[in-house]
Amino acid sequence: MLMASNIGLRYGKRILFDNVNLKFENNNCYGLIGANGAGKSTFLKILSGEVDSTSGEVIIGKGERMSFLVQNHNAYDDYNVLDTVIMGDQELYDIRTEKDALYMKEDFTNEDGIRAGILEDLFLKKNGWQADADAAVLLDGLGIEASLHNKMMRDLKEADKVKVMLARALFGEPDILLLDEPTNGLDLDSKSWLEEFLIDFKNTVIVISHDRYFLNKVCTHMVDIDYEKMTMFAGNYDFWYQSSQLIQKQMRDSNKKKEEKIAELQDFIRRFSANASKSKQATSRKKSLEKIVLDDIKPSSRRYPFIQFEPERLLGKEVIQIDSVSKIIDGVEVLKNMRLTLKPGDKIALIGNNEIAKTALLEILAGISTPDSGTVKVGTTVISSYYPKKNDDYFNVDKDMVEWLREYSPVKEDAFVRGFLGRMLFSGEEALKKVNVLSGGEKVRCMLSKMMLEHGNLLLLDEPTNHLDMESITSLDEGLSKFQGCIVYATYDQHLIETIANRIIEIHEDGSYTDKEMTYEEYLKKYGK
Ligand SMILES: Nc1ncnc2c1ncn2[C@@H]1O[C@H](COP(=O)(O)OP(=O)(O)OP(=O)(O)O)[C@@H](O)[C@H]1O
Ligand SMILES: [Mg+2]
Fold first, then answer.
1. Which of 111, 125, 262, 364 is deepest in the core (most CB within 10 A)?
2. Model-level pTM?
3. 384 has which bridge partners?
4. Is the alpha carbon torsion for 382, 387, 391, 396 positive or negative?
């Protein structure tokens, strides 16, 4: 059991939410929804104790343990897989780290000996010798083979990273599981695996997601953050959507009735105020009029950003030609003898579960990585604009958003940069936030702004819909559909493949590929599994 009692949070003048009173119980799965930047991740951080709320308190059942899968799946890139899992029990991990560091010392003193003794004791009590084996069992269960257990997290593909992060969250059997956008970067197989897992999970789950299909499948309850309020509904996403539409409609109907009544009363008052014999009634109606309060209807604060990519110049005939390209990563040939000619109107979706290969190809096309063999010829008219899957490095700076975007903007005036940010839904004070506090989706909106300012005629995108809310995905879809240049993009978002691609390249697990000029629907019909 987990309870939020009167929780409120504000950053400066901005109230994220206020007076939140919610109870989360066993056997339920709560889907936390809301626009990018609404405060979902922050709310989970308050529940986990990582962020202090401005008011209220979090109450957790006696002896219950909570664990958390964070939104940033790159947070453990510098650790190896087994350690990442064991870190799920931070206390145990700390004991082990301190103990190991002591034994590594060359000048091991008496005091070190005493400290080591204490640590050994604690380690034993926590069943520390069993930790590696426990972690390995969890990983095996999630399909992470033993050969990956000692790899660094940075070398894993996203779908595997999420599984390791999940193993970390599950290490030590938590009573409450908090998951922040676990489906980001998951291929379809891993996603269905996670769905089954959550449906079977007996304790309390709170999961943030922008994926309607996933929410419908796993959630028993929805919690919506909008206009500084959090509201809980029993039922899945579709049920929430329909009920919230219904409530709106009822409010509109009731307002309409009230407005009619108001008009009627006002009419009476106007006609009879001056009339001595009726003035008493007129006064009483004035009182009734004052009592009618219209419902405050706020449809939703969810908004569509304006996404439009305008090439600085048109592409010539020659875009990019790659010939006999191979790429080896970690001893594995991820691209094998690839031959590819990009044409000006191509909108190419890179599909398949070989994520590392797709990223490698995009990096080669973007010119930030070179193949191990083969040639890459880039046409002279090409201005390429690259959207990387990982954007952490761009935001680890002490700058506000206006300063950040100005660097990428050809026009440096404040008004221009702010106008641009406004179109991407950062207006007024919001544009003066430091970029390192931005939410996952807000960072993506910034990266897309940067791309729009680059005015490329070749767009290279690696999983651009991760973190984005449904409205922003729709805007991105429109922006890419209208784009006049060439696009190569990797995504697991079926809809984005269907609506945009006119050519499909599937990279297989062994580095070979299938390249067909057709829509996704046609491709599936002919080559689908
Ligand atoms: N230290 C801070 N100072 C000011 N604003 C902050 C700070 N930390 C977070 N914010 C803002 O609070 C808002 C909520 O952030 P949060 O990460 O909780 O959003 P979210 O709902 O998880 O969004 P997303 O769907 O994009 O992940 C964002 O607008 C973010 O920029
Ligand atoms: Mg978030």
1. 364
2. 0.86
3. 458
4. positive
